[in-house]
Amino acid sequence: MQENIVYRFLTPLLSAGVLFLTLPGVHAADDNPMEILARAIKAHGGEDALVKLQAARAQNKGKINLPGLGEADFTQEVAYMLPDKLKDTLELTIGGQKIIVTTLMNGDKLSIEAAGKPVEITDDIKKAMKAAQHMMKVGRLTSLVKDKGYKLTLFGEAKVEDKPAIGVLVSAKDAQDIILMFDKKTGLLAKLEHQTTEPMSGNAITEERIILEYTKNKDGIPLPKKVLIKREGKTFIEAESVETTLLEKIDESEFKK
Predict the structure, then answer these.
(1) Measured at the alpha carbon of residue 195, what is the angle toward residues 190 and 198, in degrees to the nearest 5?
(2) 39 and 27 Cβ atoms separated by less than 8 Å
(3) 20 within 8 A of 244, measured Cβ to Cβ
């Protein structure tokens, strides 16, 4: 069934949508990871402003390459409130057929429906969702300079889409390492790289989330506009933010069935 293949890719799509919302731009500073992040927070209005905006709504669209099915168009509506509440409605068009996948996360409670049918919440799905939450927290940046549970290491220089960048390696106990690469010219986040699990084979693979273009909201905060996700160097998802609204909070009832 197409639905069975589709829901295996929920987390990549989900966290792609979240990436649009949570990863602000920064101004890189020399080669000190703490200074890179400190200036990032200051560039976006300071810690108070970043902490204040704990929720968001977004509409996204794009294409995903599904093994065995080929390229599929998708649209996505996302609402989230940090640290652990999210509603994601994803509509895929595969071979002319539309499949709607709905994900609700409220703390430890998680439910997924694909084409109107409940999806079994396996240990792999729980693990993937926990990893997505970790990426959301890392993307807020403020916790990285305040929480002693993180280890920050200068990753070094590299090119992202032929542009010079400098990276910070983020490590934490019981969580995956994440590399944040910042464009050396603009200071904006250019790429997030981490290890993930390929849903069909269970093999560990390298995933790169590359931000190709930014836009600014009414308050001047840079938000990712176009994102390219690669797996083992091959295009997996091409996504574009249609609209994003940052908020202080969303009523908790929206994250309940």
Answers:
(1) 115
(2) yes
(3) yes
Question: Is the pLDDT reported for residue 25 higher than 50?
Answer: no
Output the six-digit token pair for 95. Answer: 């071979």
Evaluated on CA atoms 101, 104, 105, 111, the torsion sign reads negative
Angle at which helix 123-140 crosses helix 10-22, to 10 degrees, equals 10
Query: Range of 76's domain?
Result: 2-255
Contact 154, 31 (CB under 8 A): yes
Question: What's the CA gap between 74 and 99, in Å, rounded?
Answer: 9
Q: How far apart are CA 102 and CA 56, in angstroms?
A: 17
> What pTM was computed for the model?
0.84
The beta strands (E) that lie in 95-218 are given as 97-106, 109-114, 117-118, 150-160, 163-172, 178-183, 189-197, 204-216
Sign of the dihedral defined by the CA atoms of residues 215, 40, 132, 238, in that order: positive
Sign of the torsion angle spanned by Cα atoms 136, 141, 142, 148: positive
- Where residue 242 sits, what CATH number does that domain have? 2.50.20.10
Q: Which tens digit of pLDDT belongs to each residue from 91-150?
A: 998 888 898 999 999 988 999 998 888 988 888 888 888 888 888 888 777 788 888 899
Residues 6+ apart with CB under 8 A from 47: 41, 142
Q: What is the pLDDT of residues 190-235, one digit of tens each?
A: 899 998 877 666 778 899 999 999 888 888 888 889 999 999 999 9
Residue 104 amino acid letter? L
Over residues 159-176, the mean pLDDT reads: 91
Number of domains in the chain: 1
